[in-house]
Amino acid sequence: MRIEGATALVTGANRGLGKAFVEELLARGAAKVYATARDVSTVTDPRVTPLALDITDPESVAAAARAAADVDLLINNAGIATGASVLGDEEGLRREMETNFFGPVRVTRLFAPVLAANGGGAVVNMLSVLSWLALPTTGGYSAAKSAAWAATNAQRMSLAEQGTTVTAVHVGYLDTEMAAHVDGPKVAPDKLAAQVLDAVEAGEPEVLGDDRSRMVKAALSGDLRDLYGSLG
User: Fold this and answer.
1) Is the pTM of this model over 0.85?
2) pLDDT tens across 60-84, in order?
3) Which domain holds residue 42?
4) Burial, 202: exposed, middle or buried (Cβ in 10 Å; 0-12, 13-18, 19+)?
5) How many domains does the chain have?
């Protein structure tokens, strides 16, 4: 689909990658951008349409779908990272699943009829290299993103008949607040946003946003011990 003239909705649009998506959409000539956040007062760009949205609240998502009935590009960007371990407190795991899995699944389900009514359009799901790789400190996040990856693949098949493309985005660390504690190479949010929108315009099903995501995906077909050296 063409970004120029499109009507887009970005979840978690008030900072980080979400804000970068908004900037790139506007630069490419999107006709309208709904910038969503739980606290809509944090969306201050006069060029966008602020919209309150809590992706963990079904009523909030339904209200957003009614208010933004002209959307033809949905970018599921909102997410959290609690550091929950799969051996730790279940509350953290549930927060990860509710925000990183059930949230975007819910948003896509309720916006699918909107996209169909507007000609099909496209969905972008922000995933992670941790969809494929788990660390002790990312167990909950990895589990939720892995589930979201599976859901994305199912959505792609299910929505194809209505003309909606679905693009999965995998990347390692982004240079945002969420990864501020991490040392090592990071991808600039504006660079990733540009890659993703290029893929949307080309109808690509997947974006591997950095060397780390490309390396890990390639390693999945090999011996698991090569990916997890600690297995011995």
Assistant:
1) yes
2) 999 999 999 999 999 999 999 999 9
3) 7-231
4) exposed
5) 1
